[in-house]
Amino acid sequence: MRYAQGGGLTEERRVFHEKLRVEAAERFVPERERGHADVHVLDAVRRCVGRTLDPAATGDESAGAVVPAFADIAVVEVVDSVMRGDDPPQAPLPPGTLLMRTAFRSGHPPPSTGHPLGDVRLLPAPTPFTQALTDPHPRLVPLGPSAPWLPTYRPRADAIQSAQAHTLLVVPLALRDAALGLVSLYRTGKSPPFDEADQKLAVEVAAHTALSIDNARRFTREHAIAATVQRRLHAPKPTPRWRPPTSPPPAPPAAPGTTPSPCPAPAPRSSSATCPGRV
Questions:
Q1: How buried is 204 (Cβ within 10 angstroms: 0-12 exposed, 13-18 middle, 19+ buried)?
Q2: Per-residue model confidence (pLDDT) at position 129
Q3: Which of 98, 221, 228, 244 is spaced 20 to 30 A from 184 at the CA atom?
Q4: Which residues are within 8 A (CB) of 41 and not within 5 positions of it... i.e. 6 or more apart?
């Protein structure tokens, strides 16, 4: 670069510095806006999730907090025994563990949802869903017709294709070493694909959701125990069977020509009986 007299910058150098400043500002503004959007999503999750102390409603609150601000589609599935108040199983989930779909939210009506709400089923393996419940760690999965796991899960694959979803974030609902379920987030159509920064935000959303579901599970169990105790306390006591009073057998009839005495006859005295003080 050339310098002007007196050590000042030439016009060419000033234009170059101005260009750098504009490029830096263009990069900074989207990052700042994205940071603000992430803060809004987390704030919505903390405000809205966990207000009802109902496991199913908690999942729906979480899905509603992230759609459409963060994801185009959100699905929440919870271990079926957790929905009844049982302790969550340790990860990896044992074979045969059933999951219930408790929430489905979409920014636009999808042609297919895969499974209805309340549906309880096994997750086919191997898929990103079962893998996330084995570690448990999140999975960032590009979606396409060539994905090898899609044929093993045909209802979900058909729903993904009909929604034109191109990216999947599967995040386990993990609490310490236990797995309560899954949050599955999709981006569709012209939405930008999920990236590593989105994955970190999704993990925070899932952590708060898992804690809220566990609180609801504890409430469900304690309520069930209290209701059982109340039923036992207020259960009607069995009525004892009534039996008629018993009367002594009738006296035998008196011999002819005698008058029955109202007093019993004295016992016969034995000749060998001794009295006190005699030898």
A1: middle
A2: 93
A3: 221
A4: 65, 66, 69, 70, 201, 205
pTM above 0.85, yes or no: no
pLDDT digits (tens, 9 = 90+) for 45-102: 999 999 888 999 999 999 999 999 999 999 999 999 999 899 999 989 888 899 999 9
Instruction: Please identify which residue in the block is written with the tokens 């005699």.
Output: 278
Token pair of 84 as six digits: 């009844």
The residues, ordered by sequence, that sit 6+ positions from 169 with a Cβ below 8 Å of its Cβ are 71, 138, 139, 140, 141, 184, 185, 186, 194, 198, 199, 202
φ and ψ at residue 51, rounded to 5 degrees: -85, -20
Longest dimension (CA), the chain: 167
> Is residue 96 included in any domain, yes or no?
yes
Asked if pLDDT for residue 277 goes beyond 50, the answer is no
In a domain, 247, yes or no: no
Neighbours of 191 (CB within 10 A): 16
Q: What is the CATH number of the domain that holds 165?
A: 3.30.450.40
Half-sphere exposure of 114 toward its Cβ, with a 13 Å CA cutoff? 26
How far is it, in rounded angstroms, from Cα 167 to Cα 174?
22
| Displacement of CA 135 from its chain's centroid (Å) | 18
CA atoms of 93 and 83, how far apart (whole Å): 16
Instruction: Report residue 126 as tokens.
Output: 């191997």
CA separation for the pair 104, 74 (Å, rounded):
6
Asked whether residue 3 is assigned to any structural domain, the reply reads no
Task: Please state, as a whole number, how many other Cβ atoms lie within 10 Å of the Cβ of residue 227.
Answer: 10
Q: Does 257 map to a domain?
A: no
List the single range of 29-33, 113-117, 147-151, 243-247 with lowest mean pLDDT. Answer: 29-33
- Total of domains in the chain: 1
